[in-house]
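Lecture notes, continued. The same structure-token format from the folding unit now serves as the input rather than the output. Read the line below as a description of shape only.
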């Protein structure tokens, strides 16, 4: 099996910098410290096989299923007396490390981080067990500096992290337009600057970047600063559907506690159903969780358009997962990985069937 060969990259915490790591080792991206774990107490209910389940996620709107499920107690309702310890992360590699270390059992994460974690572990670390979000990613630019998609040469564009989902998408798009960019340093016809989402707005205001390929709510934050949406990534995918966030579980936890995993999946379906039934209340509740995690709620000018651009889904869109991996390979950020077994939809389809809904497909990536 081939494995990834991307080195760790230090990201600036207070200023925009190009990534300085080289293609070496087996992981990519920076390890960002996670927020302290929060514990909730179990609710009355049937006793499951684990006393505690540790859930990881990002305080991003693309992780709205997790935000709403935690804020409204929808996971806890299904878990009964099993306690939840939740922990928020700012980058996928840090969450994968936590899962590998056993401090996270189930997590919401972007597809490239899941692919990287699976390949790095020789297919032993995790499974993708459900969907969470599609869409909610845009290229936003300073209209005074970039007037069209043919006006990117010599410009500086930010992505959240080297080898991350948006980084791969931008590199793939630029290659398709004929621009040459070194994947490790980000230098080339277009400068790709790996910059944490929380830093991007200040970088935009200071003029350090000309635009960014970023998820919500960062894209909408830039729009409030005068940026324009030059491209919605939905337009590049069939039917506008592509995986933005998935649910992963450690294989060890899945084997030992399938009843707990199934309960979390029921909570996930309940959260997505609530989002569809009452989007305004769900949006407000997600914002409450973001405020609890980050200390600051999103203003309506950011929250409303950002939320509207995301589709919350139960299907992990496994076919697009394979395409995402192909893009990473083409960009030079990934040796062709063996993805067989990365997806296990057994429990998700059990829950869907029990709810009278059709099963979803694993696109040939399921456990044999």
């Amino acid at each position: 099996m081939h494995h990834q060969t991307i080195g760790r990259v230090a990201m600036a915490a207070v200023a925009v910098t190009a990534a300085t790591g080289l293609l070496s080792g087996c992981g990519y991206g920076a390890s960002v410290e996670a927020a302290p774990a929060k514990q909730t107490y179990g609710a009355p209910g049937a006793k499951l096989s684990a006393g505690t389940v540790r859930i990881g996620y990002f305080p991003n709107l693309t992780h709205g299923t997790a935000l709403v499920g935690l804020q409204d107690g929808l996971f806890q309702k299904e878990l009964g007396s099993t306690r939840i310890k939740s922990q928020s992360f700012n980058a996928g590699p840090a969450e994968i490390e936590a899962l590998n270390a056993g401090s996270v059992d189930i997590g919401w994460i972007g597809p490239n981080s899941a692919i990287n974690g699976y390949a790095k572990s020789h297919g032993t670390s995790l499974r993708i067990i459900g969907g969470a979000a599609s869409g909610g990613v845009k290229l936003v630019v300073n209209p005074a500096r970039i007037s069209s998609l043919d006006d990117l040469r010599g410009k500086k564009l930010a992505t959240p992290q080297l080898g991350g989902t948006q980084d791969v998408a931008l590199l793939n798009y630029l290659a398709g337009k004929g621009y040459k960019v070194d994947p490790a340093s980000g230098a080339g016809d277009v400068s790709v600057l790996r910059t944490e989402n929380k830093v991007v707005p200040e970088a935009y205001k200071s003029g350090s970047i000309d635009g960014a390929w970023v998820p919500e709510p960062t894209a909408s934050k830039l729009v409030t600063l005068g940026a324009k949406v030059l491209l919605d990534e939905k337009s590049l995918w069939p039917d506008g559907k592509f995986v933005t966030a998935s649910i992963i579980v450690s294989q060890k936890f899945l084997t030992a506690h399938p009843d707990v995993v199934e309960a979390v999946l029921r909570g996930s379906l309940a959260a997505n159903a609530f989002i569809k039934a009452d989007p305004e209340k769900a949006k407000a509740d997600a914002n409450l969780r973001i405020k609890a995690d980050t200390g600051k709620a999103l203003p309506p000018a950011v929250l409303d358009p950002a939320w509207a651009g995301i589709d919350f889904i139960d299907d992990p869109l496994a076919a697009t997962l394979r395409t995402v991996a192909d893009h990473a390979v083409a960009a030079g950020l990934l040796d062709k990985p063996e993805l067989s077994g990365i997806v296990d939809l057994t429990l998700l389809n059990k829950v869907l069937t029990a709810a009278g809904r059709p099963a979803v497909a694993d696109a040939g990536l399921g456990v044999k």
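Point for the exam: Confidence is low (pLDDT under 50) at residues 1-33.
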